[in-house]
Known about the structure:
Blueprint: H1 2-18, H2 48-69, H3 77-84, H4 87-100, E1 114-123, E2 126-134, E3 140-148, E4 156-158
Antiparallel strand pairs: 1-2, 2-3, 3-4
Helix pairs in contact: 1-2, 2-3
Amino acid sequence: MRNKMRKAATIAVASGLLLGAGAAAPALAVSGSPPGVAHSHQASGPRADEAGVVHRVTAFWDQYKSAVLGTNPVMNPAEVRGEFLTPELNAELDAWAEANQADPVFRAQNVPADRTVRYEGSGMGYASVVVTQYWGDGSTNDVWYRVPLDGSRIAGLQDPPV
Length: 162
């Protein structure tokens, strides 16, 4: 299991670097890092499954942003979503986009300037990963991802729980 996660994390890092997506898959860092760097709630260091899910969400977000901006030389936004997300989640996001007239991943009509990614916790085979998006006007918003710990495709994406 750890080898599978390590391989998935390595692939996510490599694919992000090959696509020139900037800080494609940063290591988990301590709080207080600048935008674009992930955070962990554990001072003793992340476990392999935590790092794997954070890397997977980071790779998805960075490749998706690149595709939306037209700078991803390999995939368009639909192809990025198809590679990283379950078909069920893709259908939910299509419905959300139609209902809200906005990008379903960024949850807005424009593209964020930057992001941080942090592990929020896990249970019942899934992890919660939070992407905080930074906008040009200084505002932020959080998007929560539901990620299987077994290395399969991202299964959920939603606004913060209320």
